[in-house]
Each structure stands twice: as C-alpha cells, then as structure tokens.
Amino acid sequence: MSETTGSHAGVHNANRDIRNHYLFEIATEVANRVGGIYSVIKSKSPVTTAEYGDRYCLIGPLNKQSAAVEVEALTPTNPHLAKTIESMEERGIGIVYGRWLIEGAPRVLLIDTKTAYRFLDEWKADLWNTAGIPSPPGDDETNEAVVFGYLVAWFLGEFVYHEKEHAVIAHFHEWLSGVALPLCKKRRIDVTTIFTTHATLLGRYLCAGSVDFYNNLQYFDVDAEAGKRGIYHRYCIERASAHSCDVFTTVSHITAYESEHLLKRKPDGVLPNGLNVTKFSAMHEFQNLHQQSKERIHDFVRGHFYGHNDFDPENTLYFFTAGRYEYRNKGVDMFIESLARLNHRLKSAGSKITIVAFIIMPAQTQSLTVEALKGQAVIKSLRDTVDVIERSVGKRIFERALKWHEGEAMPDDKDLITSQDRILLRRRLFAMKRHGLPPIVTHNMQNDSEDPILNQIRRVQLFNHPSDRVKIVFHPEFLNSANPVLPMDYDDFVRGTHLGVFSSYYEPWGYTPAECTVMGVPSITTNLSGFGCYMEELIENSTDYGIYIVDRRMKGVDDSVNQLTSYMFDFANKSRRQRINQRNRTERLSDLLDWKRMGMEYVKARQLALRRAYPASFEGEEDEDFIPGVEQKISRPFSVPGSPRDRSGMMTPGDFASIQEGREGLSTEDYVAWKLPEEEDPDEYPFPLTL
Ligand code: G6P
Ligand code: 1S3
C-alpha cells in the first residue's frame, strides 16, 4: 500500500472563500441506524446545522427502508449541487436528496450504491493501481465500501468542478466511508479532508481475543495480525484513510494512542462524542421520571419472577449493562463475575437488598420464550381478577353501609369476599405455581449451549434461586415499547434503573454511560473507555457524582473484579436519600457532555483542515476565530465545591491534548496518562503467537 501523510496544499485554489465554506459529513449511518456513529451524527445535528445552515450536508449510502421513514425528499436549490446530482443521475446513479427528519433537519444526500455495482471490478482494479489496496472477492462489506467510496469521490470531484467560489470540507467517519480519502488525494480534488476513526479494526479484533492489548500495542506486527484475521484489505483502507486525510482524528485519547501504534499516524486531535442534552425546567422532573419508569420495570419483574416474588420492590435495585454483543470488549465477562461475588457478599452480610441485573445485548434468537410470555400473562390475569374482586367488594361494602343501623355490627370482611371470588383468586394462585426457577433469558437463543453470556452465568451459578440476592435477566434483543414482555423504550428503561455497569475492555468512547449521566443515572465504567478517561480527567471526586471508574489498566483482572464488586456493594448499601442526592449530582454533569461544548473540537478540526489546505488565506489571522456565528469561548459549566476539576483557562473538552493550529499532530506526551508505566523492551514477543 502506498502512503504519504499530510496536506496536499498545492492542489488547492487559494481564491476559494474559506469563511463561508461548505461542509459535507460522510458516514454509512446517515439516516440509517446501525450503531454508535448514527448516535454521533444525529445528536450533533442541531449544533452543526445552527453553525452552517444549508451549507451543511450529510452523505451516506441509501437504505431505502430507513430513508422512507427518516427522510423527506427535496429538490436541491443550490445550483451547483443540482448540477452535480443531475450529472451523476444521467450516468445512472440513483440519488435521494432531502431533509433528515431529526432535530436540526440537516440536508442529506443518499447515494444508491446498487446502481453502481456494474463499476465494481473496474473500481477495485483502480484502487489497487492507485492506492495499492487489495479487495479480494467475497467480502460484501468491503465491496460496499469501495462502491460508496468511489461514488463519494465522484460526487466531490464533480461538485468542486461546478462550485469554484467556496472552500469545501469533507469529513469522513470510520473506514467504511474512507475509500474516498485516498482517491481525493490522488485525484487532487480541491477539498480539504478530515477523517475520524471511532475504533480501529485491529484493536477491536485483538481485544476480543485474549491479548494483553494495551501493554503490547507498540509490538504488534500490524500487517501480520491483520492478515491472520483475514482483514488485511480492510485494514489497508483504514490505514490509507488515516494517512491521506488532511486532519486525522479519533474519539478519545486512548484510541489516539491505539491509532498511533496500529495505524501508524498520530492523530491531530481528539473529537469526543457529545449528546444533545434536554434540560428540564424543574430539577425534580427527572427524579419523577425515574420513579415512573421504575414502576414499569417493577411490573416486568413481577411477571418474570412470578411464583418467586419473595423480594420486596422497595428494597430492590435495578442494575444493567447494554450494548452490542461484544462479550469481552464490552466487559460482560467481568460484570457477571462481579455479580457472583456481589451475591456472595450480600448474602454473607445478611442484606435485605435484592439486585436485579439486566443484560440487554442483541444475540441470535428465535422468539420470546413461552415462559417469559406466560409470566406477564399470569400477572396480568391476577391483576385483572383482583381488580374485579376489588370492585365487587367495594360495591358490597357500599350496599351494606347504606343499610346499616345504629347498634348493628360493622360489615364483616369474611362476608365481603364471596366464595366465587375465592375460587377465582385460587385459580390465579394455582396458575402462579412454578416448578423451576425463574428463567435467566427472555428469548429462545439460537445457540443456547454455546452462548458466552449464558455459559458464564452457568459457570458462576447465578440461577435466580430464592436465596440469591442477585438475580439476572438476559434480554438478548434491544428494547422497544412494542415488546410484549418488557414494553419500554431504551431511554425510559435506563431512567427507571439505579445503576449502569459498563466494565469495557475495548471502548473507544462509550455512549452508554454518557447517556446514563445525562439522564441522572449513576454508572460504572473503566479507565479503558474513552468516556471513563474523559470523566476521570475532568472530575476530581467522580464517585460522589455517580461516575465510578474501574481500574482495568494498572490492576490485575482479579483486583479489577473486586473493585467492581465493591462499587456495586457500596452502592447497594446506600439509603434512598443518598441515591436521590447522588442522582441529582450525576445529572448536573450533563453540561460536560453537551454537544454545545463537545462540538468545539469539531470546529477546531475544521479550522485546522482549512488552515492546512489554504495556508495563504490565514496569513495575518493567526489567532482569529474566523468561523462566523461560532462563539468559541465556553465558560466552565459550574463551580460548586468538590465538583469537576477547576480548569480555568481550559475552555473546551479536548484542551488537555487538543487540536492546535500550527502544531503537527498530538504529541505522544499528550496522552501520557494513557500509557502504562513499564515499557521496557521485552525479551521475547509478549503473548502467544497463536491468537
Ligand atoms: C425519585 C422520586 C421519589 C422516589 C425516589 C425513589 O427521586 O422523585 O419520589 O422516592 O425516586 O428512589 P430509588 O432510588 O429508591 O428508586
Ligand atoms: C464505536 O462503536 P462501538 O460500540 O463499536 O463508536 C462509538 C461512537 O463513537 C463509540 O462510542 C464506541 O465506543 C465505539 O465502539
């Protein structure tokens, strides 16, 4: 693979207007939910459209199903855009241009890759000839990335041919959208480019195995490791993207460190992920929402544990983990082991508290189990019967009271419930008899006996026994309010829980704990997740704020498991008052995660991209904020005692190792906190080669 890193300033027309530049953001998840990148671009939309208006457009591959629901088609009013689309359509390329129906309503351009597969072989050959990137047959995902990449490069080349007045920034997310980057460079297309990687392919694969990843980052033979896993061609695309963009970024410092070693380019900066924070006018509102959602989780639990409801809802706490099913990377192995130790500690302490721990991770399933459906049905019938009895008892009390005369006895409650009521009630009680223990999993798994989560639960023997103080529910499907067993949307569910647990080993950022924070739900994360490191850096006494960070970097696995267990045990011993106070403090951290603040790093990355491509336009403007409408100075969110670290002068999230103009990339010292202490050269390769 040929690679030359850095700017290609020579190809740019210095007369372009950089102040009113266009911004294209390119990702495969535009109006198409797959994972975390959808959350990034969707939640960021309000701040980006506020800054750019109709000079902003997202580009993605067309997914007809989701576009039909998420996008309203429009006719482009910009003549250059219209001409570009028209010219591609004339060559048979299908394009949908429209408004993404989300907050901010950004413009989107969705290209139908299926209309270009006739060029696939030609483009694959060209990719090899121009960038030295191989694309072997049989990898549909890579084929799609190649076709999409060539279409995007085609679009950008054509657009800047028509539009010669303004500068254009093209910001690409993740390797799947990155094929256009080396093409822009080779074809000398007059755009300036940013590439943001949200993980590295090799990092994800290596961590999923049993490698001491962070201690050995600098020793991996990257080509060989990629080859062994059959992802060499994908790795080439990722690496070429990182090397051919003008500005290379990632989502956290820990992933910056990883990228430096695995992609062989130091990122120019870190663009942490934000959220679109909704602030309630009254503080207690989110607390009320917690109570309401918790009641709905209680309803589910009553059904799931029918016949074994021998724990008191008032003394029950809900913990959960959620995310894509990456057993080791997302730390589910550690979570389950810690739950077993927590169970032991709560039992030994004679605790009255019961923990119900939910694992929400989609796996291959066939259907909901009969038992899970029956549980909800049984409890619904019981409630309906009790409602009928309640109404008839009420009616009878009323009638008796009407007829009552002084001197007569009070109505006897034995006469109020009729024998018919008793039979009805008995029937319902018999229906609640259960021979086995309440199930762990709500669905029929396609591969029950080999499922890593179930096997780990079997190994630690957490079987929802009445004596267990920790119960487990594994829901192998994302939540939605139409689900007959647990009918709640994810956000509502999170609000109703007490603690999120995300003990990840590989987590470039980690939206799940960030989402907990803005909903005022405490969470446990690790110092191997971008979010955990970010919060650790910003907040001095983070546990007071409901941000618990397990040390998975300096401690051995057993010690990390014990630390996680202790965090959960201490949390279980909090009083209700303490939990309410902590939730208030957690919710106060929301401002730290708001795009209004996080988005500043994107602004800086774009400035750097323009500066690198159009250096002449910046002469004499060294420190100027030239992007109109953007208030660069963000004050500290608050300064109550013991709150986030006093960082006067540190105005934006990435400032502790930020994108700075005139500086060539992050310095390794910037993420010194992410390095491990002893980095002596090992005598031999530090882990087995048979991984
Ligand atoms: C919220 C509600 C309170 C409720 C509390 C329960 O704060 O506003 O009315 O008592 O939640 O908290 P818990 O941690 O026990 O679920
Ligand atoms: C990636 O998604 P993942 O869950 O595979 O991108 C997300 C958005 O940047 C990030 O939050 C997450 O940590 C990464 O791992």
Structure commentary:
The chain has 691 residues and is α/β, with parallel strands linked by helices. It is 42% helix and 13% strand. It contains 23 helices and 17 strands. The strands form 3 sheets. It has a 9-stranded mixed beta sheet, with helices on both faces. Helix 3 packs across helix 5, helix 6 packs across helix 9 and helix 11 crosses helix 13. The longest helix is centred in the middle third of the chain and has 34 residues. The protein starts with 16 loop residues before the first strand and ends in a 78-residue tail after the last helix. The C terminus is likely disordered. Bound molecules: 6-O-phosphono-alpha-D-glucopyranose (G6P) and ligand 1S3. The site of ligand 1S3 has 14 residues, from helix 1. 6-O-phosphono-alpha-D-glucopyranose binds next to helix 11 and helix 21.
How would you summarize the topology of this molecule?
Blueprint: E1 17-26, H1 36-52, E2 56-61, H2 64-70, E3 71-73, H3 79-90, E4 94-100, E5 107-112, H4 120-131, H5 140-162, E6 166-173, H6 180-186, E7 192-197, H7 201-208, H8 222-228, H9 232-244, E8 247-250, H10 253-262, E9 269-270, H11 284-304, E10 316-322, H12 332-348, E11 354-360, E12 365-368, H13 370-403, H14 413-416, H15 419-431, E13 443-445, H16 452-460, E14 470-475, H17 490-496, E15 499-501, H18 511-518, E16 523-526, H19 530-538, E17 547-550, H20 557-572, H21 576-587, H22 590-593, H23 595-613
Parallel strand pairs: 1-2, 1-6, 2-5, 6-7, 7-8, 8-9, 10-11, 10-15, 11-14, 15-16, 16-17
Antiparallel strand pairs: 3-4, 4-5, 12-13
The protein binds 6-O-phosphono-alpha-D-glucopyranose (G6P) and ligand 1S3.
